[in-house]
Amino acid sequence: MNALEVRGISKTYPGVRALDQIAFACSKGSVHALVGENGAGKSTLIKILSGAVAPDEGELLLDGQAYAPQSPSEAAAAGVSTIYQEFNLIPGLNVVENIFLGRERIEKGLLDSRSMRKEAQALLERIGAPIDVRRRVGTLSVAEQQLVEIAKSLAVSARVLIMDEPSATLSDHELTLLYNVVRKLSSEGVTIIYVSHRMDEIFDLCDTCTVMKDGRSVCTRPVAELSRDALIQLMVGRELDTRFPDKRPPGTGEIVLEVEGLRLEQRVRDITFSVRAGEVVGLAGLVGAGRTEVARAIFGLENVTAGRISLHGQRHRPQSPSQAIAAGIALVPEDRKLQGLVLGLSIRENAILPTLRSICRFGFVESRKERQQVAKVCKQLAVSASSVEVPVMTLSGGNQQKVVFGKWMAHSYSLLILDEPTRGVDVGAKTEFYRLIDEIARSGKAVLLISSELPELIGMADRIVGVRDGVVTGEAMALGATEESVLQMIAR
Q: What are the backbone dihedrals phi and psi of residue 268, each rounded to the nearest 5 degrees, phi first?
């Protein structure tokens, strides 16, 4: 008997056919990959499976019985748990409170904090996450929050566990831990629906694979019957000739950014590196190494306690992001939902935020310039939406990332900081992002690239700077580097 069956599921939004007769089945205890480009309909299907959205047509079966959840709580009660790509955590609560939110244990009329804390710690230890359960979730890094989400899902007995990009910000070490958790749950009979853009995970971890494209299910096949190239072609409908652009000549331009002995209040103790015009410098490090904090300091979001940041040879100590933007710095942040977008605004409104002043005259937006700028962003980055007026929160994660990236295209910057720029982005869109980053570097801009994907750092950077525990551990040319050599550098 199949654990889950999806039969002819369809969903239409105004002007958009999000899902069109989706059908597949997952066997009990399998790890079933769900793949497709951004906008293929994966997120909508996940919302239907988890009870957040009702389908227009079709039916679902759970262990052979009709399954039609009217809410996420009904889905959870039926044994379907979901870890979303965008976290479902409350920043002001601590780890224990988030894991047991809505399922608090009461003993003689009082919260049984001790038993909840003990179980939360055991869940985190089970996945090898060294996180203090008393910490507020808002103080955790994105990757640490992801691990809390996984622990939260393990606290609920589930027959089907849906994981939407669970590894998007995890290091190789943490990814191994995730693999172990998934395999253990699968061996216990839990069915995993695994949504990922990372080809390695699909081939290493999954048994079967359903490919979605333009709201339809293209095919469902055993992973063992697919090659990487064949899977990509099924997803994008075309062959991708080259993943990374050809290496650029070594950067010899002026030093745009120089960081010397940087020390911050948290994580960063002694960071020194530079980035030249026309150069991509990658920051490599495990989660918690301090890479994001360095980016935030350059962008005016962290207090510098010691050291020096220079921009074009001049002291750079911005007190706010607006000062950093005025100095010619652009930032694609790690968390697009909280830091990169205003979710309630439209695509158009988000796309013009950094350059709003430049398209205003006498306090009013010049509509012609605005339309030209937004159209250029949507066309160049192939943003998939029925209109530029739709709220950006309605887009898939990958299309949201395109808007975050694209809003800087009209800004006159000399330094572009990219913090996990391809997180949650499909393989086709990644290739386009890589091409754009290469064009930006070749145009003479300096690029600082932070990524947890070592192949991405090696493929896109000119130089790689290793960081561990807030200290630089080494530097190497990307040409000739291997994943092993970079890991050795950051794990010293």
A: -90, 125
